[in-house]
Amino acid sequence: MQNPLNRNHLYLRRKVLKILGAGFQLFDENDEQIGYSEQKAFKLKEDIRVKAGTSKDPSPELLTIKARQVVDFSACYDVVDTEEGRKIGALRRKGFASMARDSWQILDENDEQIGEIKEDSMTLALIRRFLASFIPQTFRVFVGGDEVARIKQRFNLFVYKLDATCDQPEKFDGRMLTASTILLAAIEGAQS
To answer: In the 3-class helix/strand/coil scheme, how is the chain assigned residue by residue?
Structure first.
């Protein structure tokens, strides 16, 4: 059976009334919930578990996104397909480069860089950080030098939302798109 999180289009919504940690709901292009994730508060080493369905109707874990180190400015997160029991790739935050403009490396299962995720523009990134954090972010995903996907923040003053679309699924695994979207919401979205 194909992993239900292996998608070319998805939409993420951060749960609003979560006291400690963060919760994320994942929806398909028809606005049907396909998965959810809980991020625990006060963890020194990030460990995000992604399940299919809804939190009211729990189902098996499908993906894990786990930091290799304890609290690291340039942390690397392994992405594991739990059903297959194998690492499918990793995402590494570019520490100092991300201070001005969010930037991530996409690694394959052997930790070879195959692509990157970049915030849309340096100018908009600086405006967001210092003047107007309500300007929505757009992240562009590049693999092999080609732009293969976009992850865009929906403008909403109250709820953090991201739309993710992959135009070249043969170059970028849908599970990595899902993991990238969750990680951007958990790490970069926490700054919003």
So the answer is: CCCCCCCCEEEEEECCCCCCCEEEEEECCCCCEEEEEEECCCCCCCEEEEEECECCECCCEEEEEEECCCCCCCCEEEEEECCCCEEEEEEEECCCHHHHCCEEEEECCCCCEEEEEEECCHHHHHHHHHCCCCCCCEEEEEECCEEEEEEEEECCCCCCEEEEEECCCCCCCHHHHHHHHHHHHHHHHHHC
